[in-house]
Amino acid sequence: MPDYPELKLYIGGTWRKTAETIPVLNPATEEVIGQLPVAQRQDLDDALEAAESGFRIWRATSPRDRAELILRAARLMRERADEIAYAITLEHGKPLPQARMEVIRGCEFFEWDAGEAQRLYGHVVPSSPGIRYLTIQQPVGTVAAFSPWNFPMSQPARKIAGALASGCSIIIKAAEETPAGAIHIARAFHDAGLPAGVLNLVFGVPSEISSYLIPKDQVRLVAFTGSTAVGTHLTEMAARSMTPVLMELGGHAPVIVCGDVDAQAAGRMSAARKARNAGQVCTSPTRFFVDSSIYEPYAAAFAERAAAVRIGNGMADGVEMGPVANHRRIEAIDALVEDARSRGAKVLTGGVRPNGPGYFYPVTVLAEVPDDARVMREEPFGPLAVINPTSSLDEAIACANALPYGLAGYAFTHDAATADRLMNEIEVGNFSINTLEASVAEVPFGGVKASGQGREGGMEGMRHYVEVKTVSHRMELELEPTVSGARA
Ligand code: NAD
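That is the input. Now the predicted structure with nicotinamide-adenine-dinucleotide docked in place:
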């Protein structure tokens, strides 16, 4: 069995421990599996200095050489996929096959961005004879990034890939509850020969680290994935120094199920997807608005499949869903279920926390949930789904768009005109039809409204990590410039 990695900070190309540590738990057993160093001010100052010198080297490295190094690191991560997946399951709880898929997905983010690094084209703008206007794309500088615990490998991978591919240096504070994915990424880049200081990894008290790093002059971009509340706070902090932000925030994804689809197949598929990562996905399908003509068979199939989801320790064979990642999620989900129940919602399955150690919670399906129930507005970020009937497409669209969130949305339909209307009118950054997949490396991902700013992945993802510089180049000296500035 592979070892859980030794937990350290990675600053200026070297690994370091600190005197103060916090325990990391296995959420399936509640046992301590490691002690995580807590970065102190000096560590953060060292990281800032390292990132500055790393940036000087990295921005002068050719895009092709940057891409080659990133691809070398990704190859190492693929070779180590079993070891990394094991560590992720241990600290996060998700089933081992899902952890392995996550590692591969993280590698795909690196591989995609390595390609994009070589396509950061500028323009030559048509201009008058004797003068040439150019735009060039240059890396912004040092990125301060903050990644959450739901995908310990692929979340930090997104941000590190974008920064490194574009020629930036990065200080990333990865999640304290799930540090191993980011540690394995740093290890792979170290082994691949990344110059010291280009990638720096810290852990500690999130609010202390963000409030120390974000106002620093060296930090030229803040990239965060997490809740809308924290994202808003970090955006306000960054605004004080006009530092741009890339924010991937919460969601409360609607699913519109039209009357022309196979109700049972769609119901089973929806329940299986809800269980993925124990529902702790910002794009997790949560509010299902089902055409009343197929509501009953859809809800029955959904509940039956949800009740059959095999829950247990992610290390065990055949387990489909592990525990949720921490105790906070259990309390949050329990409170939402109780609130909905007290307002008259039906609990089709789940809703009762099992006894024993581990943060387990069953896939829970609520039906006919009134609009004033908290779960209709608050993101559950757990294995909780709401299924409500709708009597028209207009009503379903209104329900889907009713919240301030706008990350992912889904629909099941085979009608081209309905699909076209939905893709135009649903207010989200990522809309998927007849699939509950919302994000792959080759397409941009991100939210509208309160779900964030900016995109990661695809051709668009790199834009945040570069600034456009306009160059005006006159071939001869402008000997007698006009005072008015009018073109000679
Ligand atoms: P939380 O809001 O306390 O933390 C969310 C994330 O932000 C964590 O990774 C945390 O370390 C980080 N964070 C918190 N305060 C911070 C600060 N001041 N500076 C920098 N980072 C900070 O909530 P939680 O209980 O850990 O997670 C639950 C909520 O977080 C969910 O409701 C969900 O909306 C959100 N979340 C979203 C994603 C996503 O992929 N968009 C991932 C994880 C969590």
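The chain has 13 helices and 20 strands.
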